[in-house]
Structures are given as structure tokens and as C-alpha cells.
Specification:
Layout: E1 2-5, E2 9-12, E3 18-20, E4 33-38, E5 44-49, E6 56-60, H1 75-80, E7 89-96, E8 105-106, E9 112-115, E10 120-123, E11 135-136
Antiparallel strand pairs: 1-2, 3-4, 4-5, 5-6, 6-7, 7-8, 7-9, 8-11, 9-10
Length: about 150
């Protein structure tokens, strides 16, 4: 199927490359189908709505930057995404890109969880966690005397 994308123009996307979000994404509840597109020469991806060109999120694997990041999926998430093994799970976090780039933040409180084998997805809001919606990707250098 051909889709219009925010960053890549018109593209052909195979049916097996579409992830279904039964409940949409908070703020975009009508958007139920997304595909993952690579952002060339970056560690980032685009989670692109199949229906709406403008609905596209820059996402990344959080474990590459936040080495101690932990996501404990609830039984409800495991069930709704039909997750049977850890190997099926792909975790992304949504970025808020800023200018300058070193101000860019990641939403660690609400990761995107994807079941790669069943092609299902969900944004999982970890209420009560220590994580926030805006964690800086690049920490500013420590001030002299703070070391």
C-alpha cells in the first residue's frame, strides 16, 4: 500500500510492516496503524501513522542511551499485545527534538511497546515510576565545583 509520510514523502509499505495500535496513542486515539521507518544515518526511527501524514513520532531504542532504564510490563500490557516471550518485545521512546539538539528529550515514562511477531503496539504509561516525560538525551557538562 502507498502512504504519505511526514519525512519520507510517498512510500510503499507492505501489509506485514504495519503495526496495529488497538487503542491508538494518547492524544491520537483515532490513529490505529503505524509503520516504522529508518531515519538514515541516525539511531532514530519514525513511527509513522499509515492514515495521517502529519502524525509521525521520532523514536529510539532507549537502552542505547539510558543504560539503567527498566520497563516492567503489566499483565494487562502482556495480554493486550499478546506477548508470550521477551524476544517478541521491542521498546521505543518518543523524542521531543529541540534546537539546539542537545536540548532534545525522551519520554521515559511512556514507552512504546511493540510485539514484533504479532505486529501489535501500545504506548505504556508507567504511572508512579521515577521516570519523567522529559529526560535529556545529552546531559549538560557539570559546572566547575559540582564534580
Amino acid at each position: 500500500m502507498n502512504i504519505l509520510t511526514k519525512f519520507h514523502g510517498e512510500m510503499e509499505v507492505a501489509e506485514e510492516e504495519i503495526y496495529r495500535f488497538k487503542y491508538g496513542i494518547p492524544g491520537f486515539l483515532e490513529e490505529k496503524q503505524f509503520c516504522l521507518l529508518v531515519l538514515e544515518d541516525t539511531p532514530f526511527f519514525v513511527l509513522q501513522s499509515v492514515e495521517t501524514k502529519e502524525v509521525a513520532f521520532i523514536v529510539m531504542n532507549p537502552f542505547k542511551v539510558f543504560r539503567d532504564y527498566e520497563v516492567e510490563l503489566t499483565d494487562e500490557v502482556l495480554s493486550s499485545l499478546q506477548i508470550e516471550t521477551e524476544l517478541e518485545v521491542i521498546t521505543f521512546v518518543i523524542l521531543t527534538i529541540q534546537d539546539p539538539f542537545n536540548e532534545t528529550t525522551a519520554n521515559l515514562q511512556a514507552p512504546i511497546i511493540i510485539n514484533a511477531s504479532k505486529k501489535t503496539g501500545k504506548q505504556f504509561i508507567m504511572n508512579g515510576s521515577e521516570y519523567r516525560t522529559k529526560h535529556r538525551l545529552i546531559e549538560p557538562p557539570a559546572e566547575k565545583g559540582e564534580e
